[in-house]
Amino acid sequence: MDLAALLPSILPGAIAWAEQQSALVLSTGAPLPQHCVADARAVGVQAPELIRVAIVTSLPLPYDPTLRGVALSTGLLGPNMVGLTLGHAVIVVNGHATRRLLTHEFRHVHQYETAGSIATFLPTYLQQIATFGYEQAPLEVDARQHEMN
Fold first, then answer.
1. For the segment 54-69, what is each residue's pLDDT rounded down to a tens digit?
2. Can you give the pLDDT at residue 146?
3. Mean pLDDT to the nearest integer, 121-135
4. DSSP letters along 3-70, please?
5. Which domain of life is it from (predicted)?
6. Is residue 125 a contact partner of residue 62, using CB atoms and an 8 Å limit?
7. Tally of domains in the chain
């Protein structure tokens, strides 16, 4: 699959889905406990009090078949993924809420804050995935460098 070629056509749907999922988590998720607030600040989050965390049985998938197919085939979502950040919304699969994963996701929150919104972050992030692959995408490399054990 050529993600770079598909990006212009899937970005509007991807952004809409991400914003919808974010709104859901922000309205139903739990605020960070104090020790997590400190970790979020340590990895650069400016407003950790806005973060909400949802613990789920599996990460949500887009309903749109094309978007779902892209997410699964690129490895962005699927059975091997246990965390997802959409703005200040952090979604973690039950049993995987380790400090290492949470600080990785909090670094993504920082990246969203720096970008200004889901709509400005997601095109850059997905372009990096298309260009470098998930493991070597600069935003993922950065998040891994800020993981705490």
1. 999 999 999 999 999 9
2. 97
3. 93
4. HHHHHHHHHHHHHHHHHHHHHHHHHHSEEPPHHHHHHHHHTT-S-GGG-EEEEESS----SSHHHHHH
5. Bacteria
6. no
7. 1
Which among 84, 63, 89 has a CA at the least distance from the CA of 143? 84
Residue type for position 12: P
Q: Name residue 79's beta-bridge partners.
A: none
Length of the chain: 149
CB 56 within 8 Å of CB 24: no
Phi then psi dihedrals of residue 138, to 5 deg? -55, -35
Contacts (Cβ under 8 Å, ≥6 apart) of 34: none
Q: Could you give the CA distance from residue 80 to residue 77 in angstroms, rounded to a whole number? A: 8
Range of the structural domain that residue 86 is part of = 3-145
Give the helix/strand (H/E) hosting 114: helix 99-115
